[in-house]
Amino acid sequence: MLVREATFTVNLGENGYLIGFDDDYDWPKEMPFGWRCGPATDTNAVVLPTTDTGSMEMTIQVHDVPPAPEVGGDWESAEEISLRAGFPVLCLAVIRQSDFWDAWPDQEPPLEIPPSANGEEWVRMRLYCHADNSEPGIGDRGERHLVQLWRAPQAPGVHPELTDADRQARAEYAAQMGVPVEEYTTTYPVSYTADNPPA
Fold first, then answer.
1. pLDDT digits 0-9 by tens, 92-135
2. Mind listing the UniProt keywords for this protein, alphabetically (predicted)?
3. In sequence order, what DSSP letters do the residues of 86-154 get, joined into one string?
4. pLDDT confidence bin for 83, thresholds 50/70/90
5. More confident call, 86 vs 16
6. Does pLDDT of 22 surpass 70?
7. In this structure, is residue 187 part of a structural domain?
8. Which of 5, 6, 24, 89 has its CA 20 to 30 A from that of 62?
9. How many domains does the chain have?
10. Looking at the domain assignment, is residue 190 inside a domain?
């Protein structure tokens, strides 16, 4: 049965969003290229929308039992992932170039996952996605996401098969994340003049 539903608009950044049960955000060590969502940590998922820097409609539902599959709506095939919910309040953050912005709307009360009768710590997340314009790009793509959450034991994720290009993109991202920050810095010589003396 549906326990709670919230629908609102999210203004996305360049790198998708994080959703889960921990607001101590950090950059995912892996990006789920080839999938719509994947684990950022055991408590948060990273989601990769079609839209780059634009608005997207999001609906989040909390259920007390696994919901029936959605029909209609022109949804892509659903993906699923398990998230640990020791903290029951849902967290949502947009990933920007260098930081994370809280994306939960001020007008919506916090969304909590009810406790399970048997003390189950894990939550199942099912994600449906649709975009009127499926080509990735900047601006409004007519995109909407439906996120369904319910208490359930931890289980393997449900995702499409990866292509060689997906694996290559994941490997390149992982290699980039392993590079020290110092390797991205550059030292430039500074010329001093009478009008520009040393500080």
1. 999 987 789 999 999 999 999 988 877 779 999 999 999 988 77
2. Plasmid
3. SS-B-EEEEE-SSSEEE-S-TTSPPPBPPPPTT---EEEEEEEEEESS-S-EES---EEEEEEEEE---
4. very high
5. 16
6. yes
7. no
8. 24
9. 1
10. no
Q: Is residue 86 part of a domain?
A: yes
Q: Do strands 122-131 and 79-84 pair parallel, antiparallel, or not at all (unpaired)? A: antiparallel
Averaged pLDDT score across all residues of the chain: 88
State which residues form the domain around 91. 2-167
Q: Which residue bears the tokens 């408590």?
A: 43
Cα–Cα distance, 83 to 100 (Å, whole number): 20
What tokens does 29 get? Answer: 């060590």
Secondary structure of residue 7 in the 3-state scheme: strand
182 within some domain: no
Which CATH number do you get for residue 40? 2.60.34.30
pTM of the model: 0.85
Cβ(120)–Cβ(165) under 8 Å? no
Walk across the sheet containing 122-131 and list its strands: 2-11, 55-63, 143-151, 122-131, 79-84
What is residue 13's predicted lDDT score, i.e. its pLDDT? 81
